[in-house]
Amino acid sequence: MVADPAVNVGVGNVTFEPGCRNNWHIHHDGFQILLVTGGEGLYQEDGQPARLLKPGDVVVTHDGVKHWHGATKDSWFSHIAITAGTPEWLEAVSDTDYAKAEEGAK
Q1: Least enclosed by CB within 10 Å: which of 13, 18, 32, 37?
Q2: Structure confidence at residue 5 (pLDDT)
Q3: 14 and 82 in contact (C-beta within 8 Å)?
Q4: CA 50 to CA 59: how far, in whole Å?
């Protein structure tokens, strides 16, 4: 959403179809802010229970925190992602871990 090389923050409008999620990842030398705009989603930090996200929710992920986010199995999910730093993409969230996260977040 912001294509200015002088701005050191990425801003993206992200949509996940039902059941879709990204891999575990870490933002180095920065942060990520998620502004939930539609549907229902999940957010989980490593070692923590998952959170159910709905429109209006805000998530702040601090530097170095391993996490993932995506849609619930029955809903599309949209958010604005404001990201600074460099992402490190890690392993996929397994179907088993995804199902446990969704069950625990409700």
Answers
A1: 13
A2: 81
A3: no
A4: 12
pTM for this model (two decimals): 0.93
Asked if residues 69 and 59 have their Cβ atoms less than 8 Å apart, the reply is yes
CA distance 83 to 18: 23
In angstroms, the CA 69 to CA 43 distance is 4
Q: Which domains does the chain show, CATH number per domain?
A: 12-55+77-105 (2.60.120.10)
Q: Which residue has the tokens 């993932």?
A: 68
| The pLDDT of residue 96 is above 90 | yes
pLDDT, position 8: 84
**DSSP symbols for 12-59:** EEEEE-TT-B---EEEEEEEEEEEEEEE-EEEEETTS--EEE-TT-EE
**Distance (Å, whole) CA 29 – CA 50:** 24
pLDDT tens, 34-88?
Answer: 999 999 999 999 999 999 999 999 999 999 999 999 999 999 999 999 999 999 9
